[in-house]
Amino acid sequence: MITYEYPLNEKVRTLLRLEDLYERLEYFVSGDDPRAHHAALCVLFDIVDVATRADLKSELLQELERQRSVLDALRSNPAVSVKSLNAVLDEIEATAAVLLASAGKFAQHVRDSEWLSLIRQRASLPGGLCEFDLPAYHFWLNADAAARRRDLDAWLEPMRPIYNALRIVLRLLRESADPVQAVAHKGVYQQGPAGRVAQMVCIRVPRQFACVPEISANKYALNVRFLHPARDERSQVYEQDVAFSLTLCNL
Length: 251
Hints:
Elements: E1 2-7, H1 10-29, H2 34-51, H3 56-72, H4 82-101, H5 108-112, H6 114-123, H7 135-141, H8 145-156, H9 160-174, E2 180-184, E3 188-191, E4 200-205, E5 212-217, E6 222-227, E7 242-249
Antiparallel strand pairs: 1-4, 2-7, 3-6, 4-7, 5-6
Helix pairs in contact: 1-2, 1-9, 2-8, 3-4, 3-9, 4-9
């Protein structure tokens, strides 16, 4: 199965982008090759650019508090495992406390470093980080891999509270509804109003179908078209029935 997640508001869109960037950053940091650590630093700069466009810390704290209140009200529900509920609540409270204690603006340590700021500026230029452009950066890339990893971990550590918080919010969002099985007849699926607008649509498609979903949604309808994943021509509707899994996620 291939999973496609489609955010339906700007907040979820930002969280999904950041989740993807953080996961790529941790993957590249774990390697030893200088090119992996170069990629890690470029991704770190992307995280700074995406996360500073909104008051992410405040929004995440508000969402964690809202989820804590919602989950805490489930204690009297006999169908809910108290042990599992307490574990989630403890995780939310611990993560919110660390996030609240993080001082200053997000990634301020990256902006305050002249060395990192110079690399960040040059990284925005195509081919701007060649060895003749920044010899000091070239020297760092040729240092011991463990030393580079320590530097990367040090730059990443102040940014982890945001990552830990958004992972909880996205996990709760993904678990907020159960998937239903649906069929797109001749590549097209439509669903009428389902109350409030979902925050994210999750579609899982068996790999045997050579198609990708195109989604549009509002409070009145959900429309899904499956298209051929054409690369050299305009995409066309996949004119076969497509059985897929659909989840409308909403916190």
